[in-house]
Amino acid sequence: MTKQTKRKKRISISQIIIYIILSLWAIxxxxxxxxxxxxxxxPSSEVVNSSFELPKEFxxxxxxxxxxRQNILVSYKNSLIISGSVTIAVMxxxxxxxxxxxxxxxxxxxxxxxxxxxxLMFPAFSTIIPVFKMMTGMELLNNPISVILPQIxxxxxxxxxxxxxxxxxxxxxxxxxxxxxxxxxxQVFTRIIIPLCRPSLxxxxxxxxxxxxxxLFTQLIMIRRRTMYPISALLNEISSKYGTDYGLMASSVTxxxxxxxxxxxxxxxxxxxxLTAGAIKG
Amino acid sequence: MLYKKKLPLFIFLLxxxxxxLVFLYEPFVENIINSxxxxxxxxxxxxxxxxxxxxxxxxxxxxxxxxKISLVNSFKMMGLTIVFQVGIAFILAILVNSIxxxxxxxRTVYFFPIVISATAIGLIFKLFYxxxxxMLNQLLxxxxxxxxxxxxxxxxxxxxxIPTLWSYVxxxxxxxxxxxxxxxxxxxxxxxxDGCSKFKQVFYITIPLLRGVICTCITLAVTGxxxxxxxxxxxxxxxxxxxxxxxxxxYMYEQTFTIGNIDYGSIIALLIVILxxxxxxxxxxxxxxxxxx
Amino acid sequence: MKKMKRIxxxxxxxxxxxxxxxxxxxxEETKEAAKDSASTEETTDTESTEAxxxxxxxxxxxxxxxxxxxxxxxxxxxxxxxxxxxxxxxxDDSQSADQDWKTKIxxxxxxxxxxxxxQYFTDANASDVxxxxxxxxxxxxxxxxxxxxxxxxDTALKAASxxxxxxxxxxxxxxxxxLFCNKDLFDKxxxxxxxxxxxxxxxxxxxxxxxxxPIAVSLNNVPHYWVExxxxxxxxxxxxxxxxxxxxxxWAKGLSMFKTLRxxxxxxxxxxxxxxxxxxxxxxxxQAAMQLDGSWYAGGVTDQDNTVVVAFPTxxxxxxxxxxxxxxxxxxxxxxxxxxxxxxxxxAAVKFVMAHTNKESVTKYWGGNGQAACAVxxxxxxxxxxxxxxxxxxxxxxxxxxxxxxxSQEAYNTLISGIVEVSTGAKDPKDLLKExxxxxxx
Lengths: 282, 293, 442
Hints:
Number of domains of chain C: 2
CATH superfamily of the largest domain in chain C: Periplasmic binding protein-like II
CATH topology of the largest domain in chain C: D-Maltodextrin-Binding Protein, domain 2
Main location (chain B): membrane
CATH architecture of the largest domain in chain C: 3-Layer(aba) Sandwich
Radius of gyration of chain A: 24 Å
Keywords (chain B): Cell membrane, Membrane, Transmembrane, Transmembrane helix, Transport
CATH topology of the largest domain in chain A: MetI-like fold
Membrane topology (chain B): Multi-pass membrane protein
Distance between the termini of chain C: 47 Å
Distance between the termini of chain A: 34 Å
CATH class of the largest domain in chain A: Mainly Alpha
Oligomer: heterotrimer
Strand content of chain A: under 5%
Largest sheet of chain A: none
Protein name (chain B): Carbohydrate ABC transporter membrane protein 1 (CUT1 family)
Pfam families (chain B): BPD_transp_1 (PF00528)
């Protein structure tokens, strides 16, 4: 009994230190978010001159300005269609690729792996023009597909690398056991691998969504019709990328960030301990 | 035994790989071939020919003093990302994993810098560092000290590295935390019963079990360091001040977009890709992520 | 002539009907419409208003997008245009002109996805797109529509001609570049405005002593104005406007002033890293005394009463006369061949361009800033700064377009990116110019 209370006490002191360290880091990460939201309620000149103060006069101009000029809701929908399909496709294809590359030994595996790593570093502009020509040839410009396909390809390499990292850590015993009980490879994949991968899949999903959502370059090149603009392309246009209207920029950033945060908070429920533990036990 | 048959391998591998082939590798190779020509624009205008310049760009690459600066900076950045980004992320992940209450708050909050665009974060740091009325100099003024040029050539590299490193810690944090949540609680409980301290658990249980994930993070970190671009570009565009903060990524962008030497930019892109493959090859040689298979 | 036209219209009708047959939708109606257009084509000469009753969708692109000061005017003119011509629908895709945008436009032209009407650069900045040879010349348009660009001044049309000398674009406004001075700061320290170089030196020294930044400029970001004026001042308008093959001494001498000025402490302490916008804030907040900028800068200056524009003082030993100015017209509305060759769109495109380039619209676009491409009436709402700018530009002894209108973009950008090194002495201006001209002659 005494031993137990002693142990509890020691933990609580170290826990306090841990909380302090974590909170200090949290302050640095919360700060920019607060800064952006705070400045989105100021006129632009105030942003440059006193960006670290509270607004002198609270104004919603930046938001009404953004909403007045464009149909933001339609753009949210367009973004959701594009980034949603990219995320789902990448999750499926990347898990399949990672499964193949970690579970099978075959000639050329090393080459395929370094091809995937190398494509992590392809800059978007060096691949976009040939893809653009291809899309024009197929008359797919202005069609969400023209953004979705290159974005899937672009995010696959990252997602495959991540999934390979996780799959390597999974013990093979369960798969072997399932095989002994007569399961086929496809069943092993859908019944064992995918449930076990849920936390990592959620991680891949959030980053894919984020990058697809923020990938202005591909969106701008492929989508020309204003009614088809995804949200970041639209808001970029309003507050032209390196423009001078910092107040409008801050409100645009806020409007862009909100859906991503919602998606993240929604997905992170899946990155919770216990889900996997249950899967392993069962 | 289970993975002897090769047919499923192709079914699993091919759909994704074909997509990558069509939308990544083929265009990239096309771009490399183009860089043997003097590209006057991204797209060849109908009826206009590009002059063949062969290996001129490779020669330029070898003699360009700015490439040297960029290479040195990019390699420095690589070291820094491993130590600070992956290191800090690892510590934070272990700490967050060890607490009972408020996990989800930290998980959400640490993610903020990644969600907010580099343009906005760059602007914030620009306003921190600004010589006239920037936040740091305002603080100095309040303390009755002379203002400092925070982006003077001697310290610019450090000042740019700080936000670059800081903003992506959350990325590796999320990946590490996911990896940690894959480790069964039972292992730690068993270790605690055997009298293994929390500190020892990290070295004897967490690190070995996280090997694959740590290796992934380091690979992503070094390749990420090679193409570091947006934050430096916003805070100190074009290698400012006086070219000391060029990275391979920013120099490639400057050549391609600001100056318009597209063919030379493609060659720098090729250099980045080759370096990335070599470095990540070395990483996996050293860390052997497949060792436990 | 008339027979020709009839044959042409018949061919066009066949093509049109054929293309409509393949398109899905209400075949019958469109056929009807196609017939309509054919019959009206024949009678264009007599009843030109009848010719345009078909619904037309015109794709248009301009640089008045995003936060461009004229975006509002552009949209207003478009709306009025659509209200007056209900059969025309505009599909407008305007954006502020940056590098991404230019890449996108070039890509469009290369693959045949160009718009019907585009407002774009007219100088060397447009060489990519001009190479595709997809614009109709003004002469060709005027042959059929004599009223086209009728309000536009001949000098303006000439200034907006492309590097090959052909006039294709109809301009709306032009710009000037000049030296903005905070007159109240000069008065405060008993200084005269920098009308010659001695006064300039004196002003720089005095401001420096009093902790005021003499010249607000970002050498890393936008040294363009200083590059232009120093070279113009040193070489004179004639030497400046040539495209030399050998490195010109005069240009190098002008650029070497960057080091002189930097050593005097004329630039902000962080001129290597500061943003152009933040440098502009220094001037607007009276923390800096002078700034060299374009006419578009005037509208954003907060203190419209105490800010003046003066001519750039000639540098010691410079060949330029007092009042030599950099300015010109660098953009205009083009009609693409794609629209011109489409009988329905041809008329709509011409109308559209005319709506944007008539006197009334040009007056709106001009708003007292820079030069107008038509003979506009002076505005009575002009601020003292606006008046000062107008006086400055009308007193100019010579007007030269900037260097980037003459040399290739890659060469010009190399020049700009070398300025910081020239100012610190790390690079000899002659070496930089040699490099620039080599790229230009490539």
